[in-house]
Write a structure and sequence with these properties.
The chain has 248 residues and is α/β, with parallel strands linked by helices. It contains 9 helices and 9 strands. The protein is 47% helix and 16% strand. The chain binds NADP nicotinamide-adenine-dinucleotide phosphate (NAP).
Length: 248
């Protein structure tokens, strides 16, 4: 297939990571479709990307919490994309989630239930067509439960496990690729209130480039900055009796 005909759909197109990923694909001559809750925000992103790259960018209303609308959402797209990327996520507020079950539910549904179910709809469509790539932006926060963000982290852990299972199921069909992205820290709206160590903190542009390059190399799991692979290895090795005293 000619590069000019390839279509990528980005769910969560208004996020910093979604925008940077869209730009990376548009610069590589992909047609970009952006989906999200706010059509005016998506339109602004689409106009910027089109102006920088002259590529066609379309926008589509999508709410990851509205699971009943998923089939109709996919049916209404102009075409079945070659690649679908779920960037949707919600950090939320851990202390609030500890007492506010509605907020806890929103975090769990936004990071796990919704992304898993919409990608599941695409998996079946890709199977029917015979090819396609599915990318989920998960998080290293899912590698081990921490006191400071375990609603978010456990939902990302569920999402990573889901992507892993779907990848293993679809591996029998050599033309369907599932990639999990664990970006580490990224400087975005989500983390603007945090002091992040520069060595382990990527830019949204680095994430966009890593997604494109990981897809081209058909990777299963990528850490945007490779140092995270070793950080996670160490974090996993810390015995629970010590880990619980670290106040992480
Ligand atoms: N920043 C980091 O350090 C970091 C690290 C690891 C993983 N991640 C993951 O990377 C992804 C992007 O995060 P970001 O840092 O770029 O933060 P962000 O700007 O807050 O992005 C979150 C995105 O999810 C969308 N979203 C939230 N709830 C939604 C809903 N109900 N329906 C549709 N879209 C919804 C937001 O749309 P609205 O604009 O409508 O709110 C936004 O586009 C997330 O999955 C995040 O968990 C981020």
């Amino acid at each position: 297939m000619a590069a000019a005909e390839r279509v990528v759909l980005i769910l969560g197109g208004t996020s910093d990571i979604g925008r940077a990923t869209a730009l990376a694909f548009a610069q590589s001559q992909w047609t970009v479709r952006l989906a999200g809750r706010s059509l005016p925000d998506l339109q602004r992103e689409a106009d910027d990307i089109s102006a920088c790259t002259t590529r066609q960018v379309t926008i589509h209303a999508f709410d990851v919490l509205d699971t009943a609308s998923f089939t109709a959402f996919v049916d209404a797209l102009p075409d079945l994309p070659d690649v679908v990327i779920s960037v949707v996520g919600l950090l939320g507020e851990q202390p609030r989630a500890e007492t506010d079950l509605d907020h806890a539910k929103e975090i769990i549904r936004s990071n796990y239930e919704g992304p898993a179910l919409i990608l599941s709809v695409f998996a079946e469509r890709f199977l029917g067509r015979g090819y396609g790539s599915i990318v989920g932006i998960s998080s290293v926060a899912g590698e081990r439960g921490r006191s400071s963000n375990y609603f978010y982290g456990s939902a990302k852990a569920g999402f990573s496990a889901f992507l892993s299972g779907m990848r293993n199921r679809l591996a029998i069909n050599g033309n369907i690729h599932v990639m999990t992205v664990k970006p580490g820290f990224v400087r975005t709206k989500m983390t603007e209130h945090m002091k992040l160590p520069p060595l382990v903190t990527a830019t949204p542009a680095e994430v966009g480039e890593a997604v494109l390059s990981g897809l081209n190399r058909r990777k299963d799991v990528i850490y945007v900055r490779s140092i995270w692979f070793f950080v996670i290895l160490i974090i996993r090795l810390i015995p629970e009796r010590i880990f619980k005293r670290l106040g992480l």
